[in-house]
Amino acid sequence: MIGEDGYFDDHVAASFDETAAEMFGRSTLDPAVDFLTEVADGGPVLEFGSGTGRVALPLAARGLDVHGIELSRAMVAKMRAKPGGDAVDVAIGDLSTTTVDGRFRLVFVVWNTITNLVTQEAQVACFRNASAHLVPGGRFVVEVFVPALQRLPVGERFQVFYGSEGYWGIDEIDVVTQRATSHHLEIVDRKVDRLSVPYRYVWPSELDLMAELADMTLEARYGGWHREPFTAESTDHVSIWRKR
């Protein structure tokens, strides 16, 4: 049964930073923080799905006024326990419907978090929520993977995205509904610990239409935080939409 923290409860939050260690590395994190700092244009900024503060805390350390919306109380508690963890004002709630006071120069949602909204309607609502929090001319930034369905054989539903001696990651995909489940299998004390999280993959062009519905227009799309060109070979994209 899923609790009030969704799929990111105390058990997941306790080891989240360690299991996602590569995302906290300087080579991965610094380009994202540099990019967002530039786009924020002095702030203030609002992060949808602020989690344990991976991006929010470094942004706050650079002097920006940072706010967040996060469903999981356990993840927020993990952030609060870190140095400077009280620098980010976080509202508990769903990123597609929860609102906070104020208007922002930048709203952003990174690391595929928008796919945790498992319906198209919820993703559209997320864009509208972002737009409602932006000042005119403010920007909404999304970092998300590009669906790699060309590597999925016809009739197959399972795609291994990671494999090692102690951990396997397997996506179970429904190409009709764009719904999927990410299965994480880890050996802990010689037993298999499984975490299965549903998500909905979304195409870049689909996101552009969601932005149009929310009175925003595409400003730029890159293949990553280094502003590399977005091409047919890109596996991820960082997109910026500007509020009209």
Task: Describe the protein's architecture and organization.
The protein has 244 residues and is α/β, with parallel strands linked by helices. The chain is 27% helix and 33% strand. It has seven helices and eleven strands. It has helices at residues 10-19, 21-24, 26-40, 56-61, 73-80, 120-133, 204-213; strands spanning 45-48, 66-70, 89-92, 104-109, 134-145, 158-163, 167-174, 179-188, 191-200, 216-222, 236-243. The protein has a seven-stranded mixed beta sheet with strand order 3-2-1-4-5-11-10, with helices on both faces. The chain has a four-stranded antiparallel beta sheet with strand order 6-7-8-9, with no helix packed on it. Helix 4 (56-61) links the parallel strand 1 and strand 2 (66-70). The N and C termini lie far apart (42 Å).
